[in-house]
Amino acid sequence: MEPSSTPQQLAEESIRIDSHLDGTGERSLADDVLDGLTRPFKELPPKHFYDARGADLFDQICDLPEYYPTRAERAILVQRAEEIAALTGAVELVELGSGTAAKTRVLLDALQAAGTLERYIPVDVTESMVRDCAETLTSEYPGLRVHGVIGDFERHLDHIPPAAGPRIVAFLGGTIGNFPPGSRRRVLRQIAGLLGPSDHLLMGTDLVKDPRVLEAAYDDAQGVTAAFNRNVLHVLNRELQADFDPEDFDHVALFDPHNEWIEMRLRARREHTTLVRDLDLPVHFDAGEGLRTEISAKFTPERLQSDLSAAGLELVRWLTDPDELFALSLSRVQPQ
Ligand SMILES: C[S@@+](CC[C@H](N)C(=O)[O-])C[C@H]1O[C@@H](n2cnc3c(N)ncnc32)[C@H](O)[C@@H]1O
Question: Using an 8 Å Cβ cutoff, are 134 and 109 in contact?
Fold first, then answer.
């Protein structure tokens, strides 16, 4: 008789991980640096914050007293996950920018309690996050299959496995707010392309509120967000042999009332030139010059509705916390 599998073997059998970043990850960083640091207003996309240290710093940010979005989004999930599970009947959960999947467990619990949960598909650029969360979740949820996708949700959505039944595509944490309006609609259209008629998009968006609350959330007293912001310079030093001194830059977080987004910048403390050796690229900074590292757009229900509808989606539920700090929207593809 065959010896029966150990719990560890069973967990390994239920995990599949595909990586789509071999080699191309560095190229995308190089392209973004070449493009973003030679513009009149210097800019880098926020996805490059997230090496293992950046991911760890983001986790610490989520626990800061000033950073309300994680707590508010979790509170909505705790309140409404059962309703979401019943409405969607989802057998699988795809999560874009899954990170440590901390809040995801609330949804997985609800789908498990509804008796429908079969598979979880985390998609993230940070390899360690996808691997760690596949291992932890398969041991926490016996019988759950995890198909991890290490990749960029702007480039690799077509590598997400086909649906095996009704699915929820979750895009939590307000990450959609990192895109300016035009790219936001493009990303939403691409995500809508993943949805079949029985699938739903569950998306977290931070809401417009008092600028002082917003700015404090991105400029905490302990300086964790400042360290997270400067971490992108460590990434450039390591990956592209650049010689940034992160201490040459101040962390700045400002609410832009016209665009209704938070803008994070690194502001040069003195005039200097850095060399990005792998690209043979000298980058000059004037004293006080900013490098924009993130925007985080804040939403009103109207803004979200018009973005969803431009992407061919219709709102099914709009869920907020009691203080209306954050919102989760459940949407589906508009019927033809
Ligand atoms: C703001 S964190 C949110 C994490 C988690 N979803 C949450 O709600 O706490 C953004 C996550 O998205 C990932 N990410 C950012 N840009 C990405 C991209 N273009 N493709 C895939 N993952 C990305 C980061 O690695 C990080 O884990």
Answer: no
pLDDT tens sequence across 6-48: 766 666 689 999 999 876 666 689 999 999 999 999 999 999 9
- Tallying the residues shown for the chain, one arrives at 336
Nearest CA to ligand 1 atom 20: 152
CA–CA distance, 307 with 328 (Å, rounded to integer)? 14
Phi, psi of 283 (to 5 degrees): -120, 120
Contacts 24+ apart (CB under 8 A), 1-8: 7/139
**CB of 172 closer than 6 angstroms to any ligand 1 atom:** yes
Q: Locate 44 and state its tokens.
A: 């880098």
Distance 49 CA to ligand 1 centre (A): 10
Cβ of residue 98 lying under 6 Å from some atom of ligand 1: yes
DSSP letter (8 states) at residue 242:
B
CA dihedral (239, 240, 244, 247) in degrees, to 10, reads -10
* Spatial separation of the C-alpha atoms in residues 333 and 315, rounded to whole Å: 9
